[in-house]
Amino acid sequence: MIYALAWVPFYFPIFEGQLFTFSLLGQWVVLAKKRDHVRDLCNAPEDVLSMESAAEELLQLRHIVGPLFTDELYHIPVIRTKLNLNLGDILPPLVAEIQATFEDIFNSWTSITVLPTFSRVICRVTSRVLVGENLCRNEEYCKLASRFTNDVLLAGPILKFLIPRSLRSSLGKLYRMSFRHHKQMQTFLEPFIEDRRQKLRQDPTFTLPNDMLSWLMEMASPTVEHSTESLSMRILNVNFVAMHTTTK
């Protein structure tokens, strides 16, 4: 892979104005430099060029996090609709959480390691939107979310580039059984989910907290997707997306 990348700066100018294709281990890569080509890539429809499909393929999400998350994408319309509609209500507590996080972490003049420190900041702040104030300040919860992100980013490319396709499904199941990230997340979330369900049973007019967990509970179907395990898995995976796109 490194050998192939080393030749790119040499050959790329030769193919000025053209699409340049080269091979890496397990995949072909197409580079576009011409303005028209870049514009075509940006305007390509989702069924032609899909960022979600590319991420799923690169990180082998179907095997690493499970097919339930990759096949049922109802969390995406939840983010696009509920999150956007509630930005005005979410922003003040989000700003307050940023301030509280900085006060807790940077409470004195001291040297820090930038990436791990800001990973903690991102995890805590995004979790305020995902699961609310109490759980976002739980250090063990944030450690689990960060560890899951790092493990997926390590295991996914290994599965893609080094493991034959015929073995990926079995090894993915073994990975999930061994690391049990989703089961650990369920331990954190189950009391909060059951508490909200109990309050809804007692009072159908009860207003759920304004966070991602509540939105998923409202959007999910009353069967598989509404199970505590499924909701916990989806919160963990959405947390992974938030952390991956901002810290990695």
From TrEMBL:
Belongs to the cytochrome P450 family. The chain crosses the membrane at residues 6-31. It comes from Rhodocollybia butyracea. InterPro entries: Cyt_P450 (IPR001128), Cyt_P450_sf (IPR036396). GO terms for molecular function: heme binding; iron ion binding; monooxygenase activity; oxidoreductase activity, acting on paired donors, with incorporation or reduction of molecular oxygen. PANTHER family: CYTOCHROME P450 (PTHR46206), P450, PUTATIVE (EUROFUNG)-RELATED (PTHR46206:SF1). It comes from the Eukaryota. This is Cytochrome P450. Keywords: Iron, Membrane, Metal-binding, Monooxygenase, Oxidoreductase, Transmembrane, Transmembrane helix. Its cofactor is heme.
